[in-house]
Amino acid sequence: MVACLFKRGDLDFTVNGTAVTRTNTSEEEIINYITKKAFVEKLLMEEHTRVPEKDKKAVREVMKELFHVSSVTEDEDAQMQDFQRYSRNLLRDFEELERSYRECPYPGKKVVESGKQLLRMIEPVQRPQEFFQTVSRRREDFLDLEEDYESVHAFFHGEQREIFRRAVDMLAIYEDSKTYIVDAELEDTVAQMRSILRKEQPYRDIPKLPELRQKYTAAYMKVLQAESAPVLDSIDQAKARVFEVLNTKEYAGEKKESYLNQFTELRGKAERCNNVSKLRGYKDEAEALKIRLLNEMDTLDAQLARKKAEEEAKRQEKTAQALGVPATEEQKPAAYKPRKTRNVTIRSMARTSSWRLEKPEDIDKVLSDLRKTLTAELEENDILNVEF
Known about the structure:
Elements: H1 2-8, E1 11-15, E2 18-20, H2 27-35, E3 43-47, H3 53-67, H4 76-103, H5 109-122, H6 128-137, H7 139-156, H8 160-177, H9 184-197, H10 209-246, H11 252-272, H12 276-323, E4 341-345, H13 346-350, H14 360-380, E5 383-387
Parallel strand pairs: 4-5
Antiparallel strand pairs: 1-2, 1-3
Helix pairs in contact: 3-4, 3-6, 3-7, 4-5, 5-7, 8-9, 8-10, 9-10, 10-11, 10-12, 11-12
């Protein structure tokens, strides 16, 4: 009899304070709760309170608007079960979107976060009456979520997401290089793009971004071309200086291809670079490559000189032995001592990037400081090769 009342919904049951319904408990478990002595003190029964029609109507309305489904059953437990199932599906969608927000500052993050909080509030509710009352009380919040999420969903499942992402990537390049950019047209275009990207709901303005990106690209390319000219020239000058020295060496044929490839690769990077900040760095890289290759040639020169000196010593020793006249200590060739060479840039010797000169005495001071630095380097090296 009690089981029949439960099935008809005439009674509400709790076990250890937890609601027992047909949605969270199997029929066999329910019968056990009712018939077994072990649950006599744990099972509480009370007359079921019917859910007001206005609360049922609110749940049906929320399901239709938020989940786009219509509930055809009048069974309260079944309605609650359907609602919570659709709610869990939407929660998974929100969690998937949260991963996208870690990749890019897409719009709608607050909508997703507040939506998760709202749905999770419903998730643990087990009593139908409490469930229907809660949804009814928060009806406007659920309907607001549907209205806000509609735009977010359309954004992520249409072309707006890619348009937005490209604009973000462009501004990231600009932000990295803006210190070196002085261009009113470009700055105005960037300001318009940034205004759209920072809006909480930019969806109506996103169609403007493709045209703004075109304007940005045209203005940025002018700046990039102007900045690239001196960088490419510095790479070519560094290459010319290295080959000027290399062509005087007996190992020029052996090293030519390797040195050429290194400068070709560096120039290719500079030509393909779309970041002004990174582009300017290639000038320093060219200077560093030049010094490194000059140092490499100095090392090779020292090795060749040592080898020739050792060969000459052996030749003289053989000649003396052939003549049967042992060489005296004075006649023996001295141990080879290579000349220590250092390649430096004038900037590293000046130890500053600029000089401020207002009177002749300033020139004297600059030259005096430079002389001291060069003299100190010569005390430690036999040859100081200063590159300009």
